[in-house]
Amino acid sequence: MRQFFLFMYKIFGWSIRGGLPDIPKYILIVAPHTSYWDFPVGWAAKTILRLEGIFLGKAELFKTPVIGWALKKMGGYPVDRSKNTKLVDFVVDLFNSREKLVVVLTPEGTRSYVPKWKTGFYYMAFNAKVPILMVGFDFKHKFVELREPFYPTGNLESDIEEIMSYFRGITGKHPELGVR
User: Tens of pLDDT along 14-41?
Assistant: First the structure.
């Protein structure tokens, strides 16, 4: 599949900037999340980079038997956003129980515009003492960019602003839904 996705990226003019860090554990956040197209672009990048990890997705995506089965086989974990499921604690426990783990998620938690991101990803990283890898999907310039790992300081407001400032320069499939 890697060769297929490399070919598809070349045909459609996409590129990957940066690479995966040589560290065993981190939270990988992808933004801006504005379209269903984020998934195939991201899955191709994941395959090209040979990234092994799990991803968190809304539970509704997993309800259809065939799609739910496929998402779970791909490393997906359903998240029920309608109630407090102690997801942060669950992910921190996963990090603490494994020698190697990458957790992929979108900080917006939706494809719609949100003025304020969910902060679960930040607390997962901070509490598990792992860095955050920022990955931008720029549809205007057709690149996937991986930044250097960012280590949360514990100053939520300052750290979130620094993270969001990077993503303000990335153009999603639907720019009006991106980070402002």
Answer: 999 999 999 999 999 999 888 889 989 9
